[in-house]
Amino acid sequence: MKPFILASGSKIRAEMLRNAGVPFEIAVARVDEDAIKAGMLAESAPARDIADALAEMKARRVAKKNPEALVLGADQVLVCNQKTFDKPDSIDAARTQLKSLRGKTHELLSAAVFFEDGTPVWRHIGRAQLMMRPFSDEVLENYLQTHAEDLFTTVGAYKLEAAGAQLFTRVQGDYFSVLGLPLLEILGFLRTRGICQE
Fold first, then answer.
1. Is residue 117 annotated as part of the catalytic site, yes or no?
2. Which pLDDT belongs to residue 34?
3. 197 found inside a domain
4. Which of 16, 33, 47, 54 sees the fewest Cβ atoms within 10 Å?
5. Domain assignment present for 198
6. Is residue 93 part of a domain?
7. For 67-101, how does the pLDDT look when each residue is reduced to its tens digit (9 = 90+)?
């Protein structure tokens, strides 16, 4: 059985695979995500293509150093009113982002790409639509102050699996994709490679 490597430093992605009973290693891919994203946005690339390209780039980088392994790259893009959002890098950025999203529906696109023998062999993009409730400024400020650890590790400045759930009225689509991986489809592919049992 080939080694399986997750090309991501995301704790939640690793936790999802671990909880599903999947044996894997981690090798964090060093790619300039901001430059790739900026270049693609300048060419008016759709959000799904940006997520897919970033996932592929991460998998490719790790697969180059580990040609014998099955390598999974993943990335997530948030879109609201045709605008893509990045992980906020400050409380002010998180505040601005959450104000932009509140009272609206946004989409999360979670791309996954597998490399095998140095080439891409499988890809999938999971989707979810999330309706953020029109919460008050008081609720927003309280959330920013009491859940600061959740603001900077996710593209939406919230964790749906934690207190961020209080910001929403509805979620449609793949729950695992909200967390950052289209897990069920990935498990299906891993079964074809003997990593998971049929």
1. no
2. 82
3. no
4. 33
5. no
6. yes
7. 999 999 999 999 999 999 988 999 999 999 999 99
pLDDT tens digits, 28-73: 988 888 888 889 988 989 999 999 999 999 999 999 999 999 999 9
User: Which element (helix H / strand E) includes 167?
Assistant: none
Catalytic residue among 52, 75, 150, 174: 75
Please name the residue that has the structure tokens 């998971």: 196
Task: Return the pLDDT at 58.
Answer: 96
Amino acid (1-letter code) at residue 77: V
Confidence check: pLDDT of 198 > 80: no
* Residue type for position 2: K
Q: Domain span at residue 36?
A: 4-192
For the entire predicted model, the pTM comes to 0.93
Distance (Å, rounded) from C-alpha 27 to C-alpha 30? 9
Contacts of 196 (CB under 8 A, 6+ apart): 20, 21, 22, 187, 190
**Number of domains comprising the chain:** 1
Scored b (16 or more CB within 10 A) or e, 164-180 reads beebeeeeeebebbbbb
CATH number of the domain where residue 71 is located: 3.90.950.10
